[in-house]
Amino acid sequence: MADTLFLVLRKVAFSLGEGALVKLGTEVVEAASVLTDFEHSMKQIESEFTIMRAFISQVSAEKVGDKTFDAWLDQVRDVAHDVEDIVDEYAYLAAQAIDTGTFFKRKFQQTKNVAAWQNISRQISQVETRIQRLSAMRNRYGISIDEKSSSNMSQYPRQLSVSDSAYLTDDTEIVGNASVTRRLTQWVLEERQDRSVMSIFGMGGVGKTTIASSIFKNQQFMMAFACNAWITLSQSYEIEDLLRQISKQLMDQQVYLASNVEAMNRIKLIEELQIYLKRRKYLIVLDDVWDKDVWLFLNYAFVRNNLGGRVLITTRKKDVAFLADHNCVVELEALPHTEAWHLFCKKAFRRLEDKMCPENLRPWAEKIVTKCQGLPLAIVAIGSLLSYREFEEQEWKLFYNQLGWQLANNPELNWIANILNLSLNDLPSYLRSCFLYCSLFPEDCRIKRKMLVELWIAEGLVEERGDGTTMEEVAQCYLTELTQRSLLAVIERNACGRARTFRMHDLVREMASIIAKKERLAFSYDNVGITQVAHEYRRLWIQKDAQSLRYLGGSKLRSFVLLDIGVPSSWIYDALSRFRLLRVLCLRFANIEQVPGVVTELYNLHYLDLSHTKVKHIPASFKNLINLEFLDIRSSYVEELPLEITLLTNLRHLYAYVIHDLQERSLDCISATKIPGNICHLKNLQALQTVSANKDLVSQLGNLTRMRSLCVMKVQQSYIAELCNSLTKMPNLSRLFISSCDMDETLNLKMLKALSNLKVFWLAGKLEGGVLPPMFAKLEKITELKLDWSGLKKDPIESFSYMLNLVVLVRTGAYDGERLNFHAKWFPKLNLLQLADMEHLNRIEIEDGSMMCLCELDLVGLRNLNEVPKGIRYIRTLHEMIITDMPKEFIVKIQGSDRYIVQHVPNIHIFESSDFQAVNNFIRLPHLAKRQFIVDFPHRPNGTVPYVSRAKCPIRLNYTWKF
Fold first, then answer.
1. So what's the pLDDT on residue 424?
2. Which secondary structure element, helix H or strand E, spans residue 702, and what is its range?
3. How many other C-beta atoms are found inside a 10 Å radius of the C-beta of residue 250?
4. Are strands 559-562 and 539-542 parallel, antiparallel or unpaired?
């Protein structure tokens, strides 16, 4: 609840700090008194909410399960949402009032909205009265901060009962993770004499405690250590109590009583433990550690005595896990399906002699196990519950369909909810709403980092942390923290190792979704028997069957994301007419040909996604969207933006392009969008992709000093000087794409100075003199480099060899020579190398020791390369080769006489030609893929040579050049 107040407080502070009152003073005379009252009242409400938030943060941990407190919190949440409505209504009316137009139009609109301004005043008075009542209710029902809350005392044993159950699990019941157990056993029993600290980390319920207990209770270990202790930590602990618990378990009872441990303070307790452990070999397990602070004291208590002491930590947090010694950290992952199924059957069908699933139940049992996604706690709890039920298909079907309700309401499944909620309750206010927001994405969805970050910012969930840090960077910190807390899992990284997509465990998503609905934060609709959305929800995501909804909520809605692509445009236009205060609108893949008229009246809109639609024209009335920060019209039919787009001074990211050649083997593989007028006012712009260059525009780019990602196409030599000058004024530029206007245009980039923060560079077009510009010698931070149609006369590989951080190197038609050489120690971090369409290239030399981290090698359209590069056999890390449109002689050799060169490569894909129709049917961007042609070639039975197959369509490429 404190996070709701946190977000509203930030919005209130923002509204008071914008200076809009000054601007409106001369614009809306009729509302002057209302605006003055608004400022005064908002400051009062801000003060009340600040104190209330602090109070709730202190009390909430003590009042878990207190129905009176929960009911009071609901009332607080309602008031907070009412305040948010007032602030957003104020912003809406303010935007209307300062909207450009004729004097008579403004006066008409002002007169029309006087009643609305006056209504704001009435609403503020009502809110102030309700806040006073909330304080009175709090006192009336005794909601306060107690010294020792009975609720808190009941929470602690409940946490311990789950841990105790895992601790008491019989080893014969443990399924899976045998390799983890063996590794930990080896670490514990190894002969090294110095103290060793090891850790297991992973999400709640994944089996950390179970594995640790199997080691701790092992008789072999009992005999190997003179003393041992098992301590389960709570989220809130007293270090003195913790030290006493450890002492009591380690010491003989007589020694413990004689030492008078109960009367000691913190320092004495640490000293007493040091003295006792100094001459003893000990094993101590710290189960479910929540923060690193506890180790500041225990590190001193657990003395280094060179007798082989061992400390094992289990935790959900990666930073806590890294308290362990180097290379003594194990990340515990979910069980694979086979082991998950085996564990489920052991629990669910324990009454059956063979413990096998009856055939009539198998479809529903499979779905339940799939839903658990390998989480042992959930598998055991649900399987045990079902073991007491009749083995009737209808009953199991009903249970599966009600699984979400069962998790939230069935006392026998409280274990799952309690364990998952512990992670949620540990989140700070700024992170809690961001995490709950992730539950809006569909089940099993790959959540894209870029989209999630932009949505968080547009929703107002990301705080500013100083001038030197962008909100995008802050949001990235949020994502990192959620993954380190094992609440989100990274499932895909780009070639540089940066997380690209994430996934939320189904059960975690289910619990988070329940809480998000309860707190009216958001509602994700997927046609589960609901035909209307309550008006109090702030965000609505429609996954499917949108037309079955009869009611979509009302004015309180702030976000509308439509994922159902089968909805007719008429339904969309009608739905949008009901939402006035939207901050986020996503119509990606929607069946619309024009921008709905109501969109340009959404003055509070921060995020608009019209990508992959049939929209052809952006109206001039877009100038009304003065708060817009993110505009995405990729893969639409828009070729030119209106002049008025340059008035959107809050715009941070503008995406407007279409990919035509999915293999990127042509100069015009990506279209550019024209932006008329002066873009100097777009000073907040950080990403511009892609823009069609002209002399005025490239000169104006120098005013966009916050730019981080820029794509400029149709560049001519006649204004290259202006472009180079503008680029040097962008100190934060990290991603750059420059493309010439045609194949005959020659670009002279000698005057382009080194861009110190450039990490990704794509240069397409013929270079002056066939040589690289001098700035290439200073690209020290470059990680991804793509050169197309450069017309280089000299082997450029040596010019890149100093790029020690280079991870991706792609060259398409960039070199006119016959030979490329890769010497030893060059490109130590290179992960992907693609060489394409170099007409004269007939030899590639790779020395032993070159590209020692290379995972993927793509050879495309090298018509004169008839020999398989023999040096490939030195690259033992090579996992995949993609051979497209290569000479027949090359294909014959790689399948025959030269097979020995590539026998260590597990995946080899060969394609006869560039079938562009097949490329359109199969694209590297997953959301456009209609068919996948992925062929993995296992080794022959004798393990010597991989099978190599031919195909008629292009291969899926693992790397997609993205800006």
1. 84
2. none
3. 20
4. parallel
